[in-house]
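Contributing new records

If you add data, match the layout below exactly. Sequence lines come first and carry their own label; structure lines follow with theirs. Keep one chain per record. Anything else will be rejected by the validation script.
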Amino acid sequence: MIKVVETYAYYANPFEWWAYSRQGSWPPSGAVAGVWRRPAVRSFNARRGTPPQR
């Protein structure tokens, strides 16, 4: 139960979600599996090599 509360309290923070996603670390190892499956944004590494979109 504590892990679920921590997951929603900490990882549900939009700034943490964005930061972990940007680092390519979503979902983080400390989060309860299945709470959020999709990252907020693509990581910088995933974006490299992709032409800029206009």
